[in-house]
Amino acid sequence: MSDHICITGVGVVSSIGIGKEEFLSSLKIGKSGIEEIKSFDTQFSRSKKAGLVRDFHPKDFMSASKIRRLDRASQFAIAASKLALADGQFSVTRENSPRVGVVLGSGFCGLSSSEEFHRGQVFKGFLDLNPMLFPNTVPNAASSHVSIELGIQGVNCTLVQSFCSAEAAIAFACDQIRRGRADLVLTGGVDELSEFLFRGFSDLRLLAMDEGHGERSCPYDRMRNGLVLGEGSGVLVIEAEAHARSRGAKIYGSILGDSLLGGSLRESGAEGVERSIKRAMKGREGLSIDYISGAGNSSQILDAMEAQGIKRALPSQCPPIPVSSVKSMLGEAIALGGMRMVADVLSMEYGFIPPTIHYQFPDPACDLRYVIHQKMDQEIQNILHMGISPQESYATILLGREWNQ
Questions:
Q1: What is the pTM of this model?
Q2: Which of 91, 188, 278, 404 has a CA 20 to 30 Å removed from the CA of 199?
Q3: Across all residues in the chain, what is the average pLDDT?
Q4: Does residue 191 sit in the same domain as residue 331?
Q5: How many Cβ atoms from other residues are within 10 Å of residue 124's Cβ?
Q6: Given the DSSP bridges, would you call strands 184-191 and 100-105 parallel, antiparallel or unpaired?
């Protein structure tokens, strides 16, 4: 039996759909989850839009008494985890729970709870703090709450690696299975968007603005001028192939390779992307890539750097590999890679490449074969999932259906 790490379930809570079916439908039609923010005041900012999760009802996934104790990010993570387990037809029991794990990536996790708790500390003092908020102020709150809610007693970890946080979590989760520390792991990412976080990105002048073409997330477009933030959670069920086969699980595909590297973006950005791709494909250099799931996030520097790095790493691929970025629909978040990985799995399963929407003006610096405006129907065997962080991190995950060959 091979040592493949198989993907056997997916769950998602996003701005374009909650659950696999709605998310899949939105990907196929290129639906945008980005709209004007109404949940908090944006008068302080020239940016007004985000990919916020709408129509999410936590009571569909947990009891009312638990909802009051949980931050929004933990609610997302629990919902996505339950959806993933249901999709993977796996139940956590007292017997198997020590061999089941949770490994999530998250940037700030329950930042709204942290803000409220520390605001109370400043204005009211230590004698009038809300004790229910305190457990949600730590970055690992979501993964811990998932374990508690589902009765999982195995590996539990949260990784923070800027915009590569979900990719780092997935790589770590695969390593736990390879080392025999778990049979099955829930892994991916979760983020919630708050006024506090939005203000931080806005004050750093990282957000997109309307300069005559609309405020939009438009990866690879010549007129792109910044990020549009998003939120949500994407979770995969991954397990050793032997374990998946033993329980008769449906296998979507497998994780064939991964890498997480560092290096200065300004000094060697394209070279860092190249190194990351080659590391993830080590031992499979001759593998034909059918689709590159791009990390393009509407940043002038990062989008161009990704294109240069891909050309350096894969100079002989002919015809050119199709590339698209679902961040055009979802926006950007620290651990958006979890939702992107769910999109990759569905693309491979249903034979299509989701479009990069909002693309209008070609950019000579981004001269790859981009899928724009509408999906491309195509059989997909292998996907390169790209991750790039402005904090000097490069991630690549290689997905494929090699297990079925």
A1: 0.93
A2: 188
A3: 91
A4: no
A5: 11
A6: parallel
